[in-house]
Specification:
This is Thiol-disulfide isomerase/thioredoxin. InterPro entries: Redoxin (IPR013740), Thioredoxin-like_sf (IPR036249), Thioredoxin_domain (IPR013766), Thioredoxin_ResA/DsbE_sf (IPR050553). The structure is a single chain. The protein is of the alpha/beta class. About 40% of the residues lie in helices and about 25% in strands. The protein has a single domain, classed as Glutaredoxin, CATH 3.40.30. The strands form two sheets. Strands 1-8-7-4-5-6 form a six-stranded mixed beta sheet. Helix 2 links the parallel strand 4 and strand 5. The longest helix is centred in the N-terminal third of the chain and has 22 residues.
Length: about 170
């Protein structure tokens, strides 16, 4: 019985530790080399992000939290885009492309929307399976923060402002 409790405590400690690591950011690590296929058929790469602060959001039209946070992502993009901020919304491989196109058009999403139909991009970014998952990439192309679930947007805005101020 004692061994079972010890194993459960260890598993809980690992879970909490990993959760804290993800919630508070994993430190700076290079964004994975990726090519995003945008709705208009053009390509956007990780290399294109250099020099800009970029929010990369993995989402799905079937994800209620994703749909609920989308107006905040739009507002964030519009607030900071003139200052060197960019947003790439990556639809998950299981999301039907017609749903993604319809969602982007009807909501007039002002940022880049990509369809990851093979799952290659999600795998490159840490095998993303939970939506929404969001990464903040600094001007040097390093991931400085990640969120699973909707971020606290006031905290996110402070981070974006700090990163935009960096040279």
């Amino acid at each position: 019985m004692r061994t079972k409790h010890a194993a459960m405590a260890l598993a809980l400690a690992v879970f909490v530790g990993v959760g804290a690591w993800v919630a508070w950011g994993a430190g700076k690590s290079p964004a994975p080399e990726s090519t995003f296929v945008l709705l208009d058929g053009t390509h956007h790469t990780t290399a294109n992000m250099r020099g800009r602060v970029t929010l990369v959001n993995f989402w799905a039209t079937s994800c209620t939290t994703c749909v609920a946070e989308m107006p905040e992502l739009v507002a964030t993009h519009q607030k900071y885009q003139a200052q060197g901020f960019d947003t790439v919304a990556v639809a998950m491989s299981y999301d039907p492309p017609s749903y993604v196109v319809n969602f982007a058009q009807t909501r007039k999403l002002p940022f880049k929307v990509a369809i990851d139909n093979t799952g290659t991009v999600a795998r490159a970014w840490g095998d993303v399976r939970l939506t929404p998952t969001t990464y903040i990439v600094n001007k040097r192309g390093e991931i400085v923060k990640s969120y699973i679930g909707a971020p606290q947007f006031d905290e996110l805005h402070r981070l974006i402002e700090k990163l935009l101020a960096e040279t």
